[in-house]
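Quick log. Single chain, no ligands specified.
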Amino acid sequence: MPSPWFTWHAHRLARGARVLDLAAGTGRHALAAARLGCAVTAAERDPAALALARTLAEREGLAIDWWAADLEAAWPDWGVFDAVLVFNYLDRDRMDRVRAAVAPGGWLLMETFLAAQREQGWGPTRDDHLLAPFELPRLAEGLVVVHGREALEATPDGRVRAVASLCARRPA
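-> predicted structure:
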């Protein structure tokens, strides 16, 4: 099931749009974008997660360009995309690469944990993986933030998560 943030902004992904899903995990956002008719490229380093994502896509007959890629290493030259999706992943040192992958007129949909997540007793705990308050818009420098939030939100399994979410557009 995709994040509510993705669902709220899915209308921005036109049929045929080129979409890059970074740190795709088991593919919940890549699959959702492919169901909308987007041409999806998805990158994930965990072989087990990638195998499950491929299986789920095959079951639905969805064509997704899956990449086994360690985003902490050199990135393949994927080009630019109409939308870049980054959910539950944070690498401040590579945000220049993330922003550069957004084509003119394209979108960045990003959501990840805030430092306040530690208080929930689950999820990431390292500072490298947690956003400071109001940090996410600064990481999208050069893009125009259309919608953003910081929230405590219930998860489907009844837990609470502290997240920052952003929908930003590269000027055309």
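The mean pLDDT is 97.
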